[in-house]
Amino acid sequence: MEKHKINFVDTTLRDGSHAVSHSFSPKQVEEIAGGLDKTGIAIIECSHGDGITGSSYNYGFSKYNEMDLIKSASKVIKNAKQAILLLPGIGTIEDLEEAYKNGARVVRVATHCTEADTGIQHIQAAKKMGMMAVGFLMMIHMASPEKLLEQAKIFQEAGADYINLADSAGYLLPKDVTARVKALVEGLDIPVGFHAHNNLSLAVANSIAAVEAGATYIDVTCRGLGAGAGNCQGEVLAAVFNRMGVDTGVDMYKIQDVAENIVEPIMQRPQVIRTAPLMLGYAGVYSSFLLHTYRAAEKFGLNPRDILVELGKRRMVGGQEDMIVDVAYQLSQK
Amino acid sequence: MGKIKVGIIGPGNIGTDLMYKVMRSKNLEMKTMTGIIESEGLKRAAGLGIETSLEGVKAVAEDSEIKIVFDATMASAHLQNAPILKAAGKIAIDMTPAAVGPYVVPCCNLDKLGYVDNYNMVTCGGQATIPIVNAINEVADVEYAEIVASLSSKSAGPGTRANIDEFTQTTKKGLEIIGHADKAKAIIILNPAEPPIMMCNTIYTKVKNPDEKAIIDAVNKRIKEVQAYVPGYKLRVPPIIDGDKVTCIIQVEGAGDFLPKFSGNLDIINSAAIAVAEKLADKMLDIQ
Hints:
Chain A is an alpha/beta fold. Chain A has helices at residues 16-19, 26-37, 66-76, 93-101, 120-128, 145-158, 174-187, 203-212, 234-244, 252-263, 275-283, 289-300, 304-313, 322-332, and strands spanning 7-13, 43-46, 81-86, 106-112, 132-138, 162-166, 192-195, 217-220. In chain A, 61% of the residues are buried. By secondary structure, chain B is α/β, with parallel strands linked by helices. Helices cover 41% and strands 26% of the residues of chain B. Chain B has helices at residues 13-23, 40-47, 57-61, 75-87, 106-109, 124-140, 158-162, 164-177, 212-227, 264-287; strands spanning 4-9, 28-34, 51-53, 66-71, 91-94, 118-120, 142-152, 183-191, 199-207, 233-242, 245-252. In chain B, strand 5 (91-94), helix 5 and strand 6 (118-120) form a beta-alpha-beta unit. In chain B, helix 6 (124-140) packs parallel to helix 8 (164-177) and helix 6 packs across helix 10 (264-287).
C-alpha cells in the first residue's frame, strides 16, 4: 500500500445530528468542535443532518438556528477546516453564502449518485467564493463503479477538490467498496473519500477497504453517532489505523476522550444495531429514514421492518423521507 | 367558432408538448414554432405542417396574426424576449422562472388578475402544490407550508438540473404569494428508479385552525378544480391531521401528449399554461 496521509473528516455534528434529532445546542457544538479541533482531525462538518436548511417537517426541525451552530463551531475551530453539507434541491447558493459568512470554509455538495449535474452550480459557486468544494455522491450501492466514475467526473470538471463516496444505506460489502473506490482513484485526477454507515456492522471494515483501494479522506463520528446504525466510529478507526501503521495525524487518546467525555453524555440512545437499522443495510434504504420510520410505524400501527422493506423495493433515494408516510399509509390501507 | 393563433418560442420538451396541447385545443391554433438552431423539435413541428423559424422571438413578434406567445426557453432568454413581445402587443405566457409578470396558478388567481400581458407559470412543483396550500389556507389559515416535489430523473431536463436553486426559490415564493402561506419552503428530489416514478408532491402545512372536516372538504373541492385542466391530478394520501400539522400527497400523471405519462411535472405546468391561454382566447373571441 502506498503511504498517503489519511485525512479524517469528522461529521459528528452533521450526520450525528440525526441521532439526536437535530437538537445540538450552540454550547454542545462548541464543546465537541473545540475538542475535535485539538485531535488532528482535518475537517469538521457541522450542519443539519440533511445539509444546510434541512430543518423542515420532512427531515425534522433543528432545535437551534443552524447558522448559530455554524458560528459557534467557527469560534473554536483553529486547526481543522470547517465544513457544511449541502444537498441541491434543499439548500441553495444563498444558503451557502450565509454559511460562509458564519465561518464555513468547505462545502460538501451531496447528490444522489446518478444526479451529480444538479450540483455543478453549487461547486462552482463555492470555488468562486474561495471555498474547498467536495463532490459527494450518495447511495453508491445503487450505481456501478463505471457509473460512479462518470458522475464523479462531472464534479471534477465543475472544480471539486475531492470526491466523497457515501454508502448511505450501509449496504456495501468490503469488496464492493474496493471496486468503487478503485475505479475513482484510477480514473480521477483528484483525491477520493469514503463515508460508511454501520448498518451491517461493516463501517470499520469498509473504511479499511476504502483506504487500501486508495481513498485518502474518511468520514468518521465520535461513538459512531449518525443516521441508521451510525457512521464509522472515529476513535476505533484511529486505533485500527495506528495498528496498521496508517498515518492519520490523529491523536488516538485525544479523540477517545472527546468521544467518551463530551459526546457520550449527550447521546439519546446507545448507537447499536437494532433490527430496523440492520434492515436499512440489508434492504439498501437511506440511513436517515430510521427515526422517521419508527414514528410512522407507531402512528399507523405497523412494524418498522415492513415499511423499510417496501421503501427498498421502491428504490427510494436520499431525501425522500416523505415517502415513508406514503408507504405507511398505503400499507395501513391493506 | 374562431380560434386564436399562438406561437411557441423554444422547441424543446416543454415547447413540443405545448404544441400538441395547442393542436387539440378548442380555441387555440398553432401558428409558429420558433427556435435559434436546427433541432428535432423544429423538424417535428414542420412535419406536422406548422410554420417554423430560426429567428427566435423575432418570428413571432413580427407576425401580426399571432396573439399569444408561449416562451419555453430559459429565464435569461425570457428577460430579453419579454420587452420585444410587449412592444409587439403580444401576450406572453412565460414557462421559465424569469417572473417578469405575475405568477399565475389557474384555479387560484387567474380570474382575479386584471389585464396582464405577461403571465409567469411559477414552476411545475408550484402548479402541483400551490392549489392545495391555497385551499387549506382559505379554511385553516396556513402559517407555514412545505412541499417536497419528487420527479423521475428522466423528466428533469438540463435546464432544471443546471438551475435547481431557481426551482426551490421560485416555488417557495409562489407558495407564499399565491398559496398565501405566511412562510414556505420547497424541496425537490430527483429519483432515477426504473420504471420511472410518477411525479409525487408531499404538502405539509402548519395551520392556525385545524378543522379536519373543513380541510378535507376544501382539499377535495380543489382537487376537482385542478382536474378540470389536469385530468391526471389525484390525491394519493388524503389529509392527515396531526395537531396543527396537515400532510397530504398528490400524484400527477401526465396526459402523454408528447412526453411520457410519468412526466406529470411537465404536463401540469403545460396544462396550466394552456388553461391560461384558453381563458384569454375566450375573452378575445368574445370581443371579436
